[in-house]
Amino acid sequence: MSVTLDKQVIPPGDDDHLSAAWELKERIRKAEGLLKQRWGFFADAYRRSTVYAYLDGETLIGFAAARRDGYLLFLAVDP
């Protein structure tokens, strides 16, 4: 099976795909017990970071959020 993904770089201060990222994070939390951050912390960190989003059409299938110093805050891939 082959899938073509689109990469979108979301700059700090933007919240494109924030709701979809939250939903993906929550699915992973429920299934794996990881990514236990609350909404306020997650949304604030997401907005302050550069986010690398990977989409299959309109569906977010993964993302990474990195601070300016390169520290990776979140990494999530749809199982």
In whole angstroms, how far apart are the ends? Answer: 16 Å
**Proportion of residues in helical segments:** 25-40%
Give the overall form. Answer: globular
Decide which structural class fits the backbone: alpha+beta
Question: SSE order, as H and E?
Answer: EHHEEE
Low-pLDDT stretches are: none
The largest β sheet comes out as:
4 strands, antiparallel
User: Could you tell me the mean pLDDT?
Assistant: 95
Number of helices: 2
Cα radius of gyration in angstroms: 12 Å
Strand content: 25-35%
- What topology, given as strand order, has the largest sheet? 1-2-3-4
Q: Let me know the number of strands.
A: 4
Structure in words:
The protein is of the alpha+beta class and 79 residues long. It is 32% helix and 33% strand. The protein contains two helices and four strands; from the N terminus they run E-H-H-E-E-E. Strands 1-2-3-4 form a four-stranded antiparallel beta sheet, covered by helices on one side. Strand 3 (59-66) and strand 4 (72-77) form a beta hairpin. The longest helix is centred in the first third of the chain and has 15 residues, at 18-32. The model has no long low-confidence stretch (mean pLDDT 95).
